[in-house]
Amino acid sequence: MAYDVNGTIHEADEEGYITDIGAWNEDLALMIAKEENIDMNSDAWEVVNFLRSYYEEYQIAPAVRVLTKAIKKKLGADKGNSKYLYELFPYGPAKQACKIAGLPKPTGCI
Amino acid sequence: MADHDTVTINTLFEIPVLNRGAMKDLSTFPAAPEHQEALGFPGELVDNWQIKAIEKFGELLKKSRALQVYMDGCVKCGACTDKCHYFLGTGDPKNMPVARQDLLRKIYRRYFTFAGKYFPKLVGAEDLTKEVLDDWYNYFHQCSQCRRCSVYCPYGIDTAEISMAAREIMDHIGKGQKYCNEIIAKVHKIGNNLGLPEAALIDTLEGLEEDIEEETGVAVKLPVNVKGADILLVTPSADFFAEPHVDGLIGYAKVFHQAGVSWTVSSYASEAANFAMFIGSYEQMKQIAERIRKAAQDLGVKRIIFGECGHAWRVAYSFLNTLAGPFDFLDSRYPVPQHICEFTWDLIKDGKLNLDKSANDHMTLTFHDSCNVARGSRMGDKPGGQFEIPRAIIRACCNNFYDMAADTIHESTFCCGGGGGLLTDDLMELRSKGASPRMEALKEVVEEHGVTHMAAICAICKSQFSKVMPTYGFDMDSIVSVHQLVSNAIILDGQVTEEDADEEGDAQEHAAEQVST
Fold first, then answer.
1. Domains of chain B
2. Most CB contacts within 10 A, which of B14, B168, B416, B435?
3. Can you give the pLDDT at residue B2?
4. CA nearest neighbour of B274 among B260, B291, B294, B259
């Protein structure tokens, strides 16, 4: 499959994860989020931006604990927990937020 | 993503009305050429695939006497027909174990038996056509290789072995599955199924050390690549990444700390899982297992302990010595390898852990036996140890425990619905339906005994249940790790408990009162 952002085509795999991570931009993120029925409010952006910066440093999405801790620091204890992250990304912060952030899907027994 | 209706079984394991072809078109994503080639398989379906498939099949029959017996032995008694969770959940007759076996058996008869070569119609032999290949691909990826059917088969025919053989044949003609093959390539490249590099592993474990110290006041370490440590912990990478897995990992760390042993994980072999078993590839299984041997030798450890991972324990317990042995460089006074549950249970038995059961009083537990542990391995030094030891640990850590119905536990346990290389989003419909027998058994103890949580010792089971339980009206966090319960109950030496904190607060108040008077 592919996403068409104002005439620019972004190739994606069968599940909608873009194949060229470097070509990611915010408009593309919004389009993926729309396909996923995700409302990209400021908290959701906070998660997506953290995923991207973590990925840049470590070449992997953060573990759930790492993510919740980071969000706790940024948005407070009432939002720094899995429950809230699942409210933002019902299909799971790791997989759904990664898709929107343009990162590869985490694999394995997760 | 999971747009489908979930089948609800009203009575416990009522045989569903047959729904022919219901799952015929559920086709898991194929491996891309790069996933295939990384494992030495052809990138895509080869031109002469029929010839190659029969050649490979012949090779496997020569290599495995068991496969030959399984192909010859079925008497169509029907004992297996209602034993598969995927059949119970989908009603598709091709998900009956005998029908799944017959997908391969009819080809065996056609090309490898006298009667099938000359009188194919009389013996149910068929040509290997594109339609048969498609059925192979779809239905051999609707088998979680859980081996429940083989328990009930009077001949002990093991459908898991048959489905592994079928996947091995398909890989060799260029028709592999994305989920398994992409992951195996990652293990070779990065060291684990997740693709978690060393720096991220270290960062993640440091974060957990902070969390434990914050919670307990005790500096419990989660060491990486420590040369000369006594124990190498090999655990599924999901333990580093996901919930409730990570709570189990914290439990292992606390137990090691309290036992006073030195231990380490290896970034080179930071994965217990061995998905090569799922695709039936002995060569791949050996390569993955040898990583563990190399890590143990490089780090100079004396013991290897496996974390909570079902099929990893089967590979470790049943095959590790054949695949990567001999392990004569390890300390022979300990089992090679050892399961974390064996390690923890030995300490509990010897009274070496201080456990406060009331810490788990907010839960009423049951235990889900994971198929590969239950039917493919053992624990401890007595038959049935793999059933008794995890339960004994739970009972030592919790006041409230009830087992599910007898024909759904121990060697009769139902698969979680996501094992055997099927824990992938593109099979969500199958996963959801296949979980129904387990969910039904759980519902029974929920209603009868007020069970609130189910514990497991397998990373796949934990992920699968946290995903599908909400479909059945349970919270996603009602699945827990066994060592999560240990982690809750254990009181470490020097740990600041809530009571201590209260007493300290009282003392301070008291002192303040005295000062003011």
1. 33-176 (1.10.1060), 183-402+451-489 (no CATH)
2. B416
3. 44
4. B291
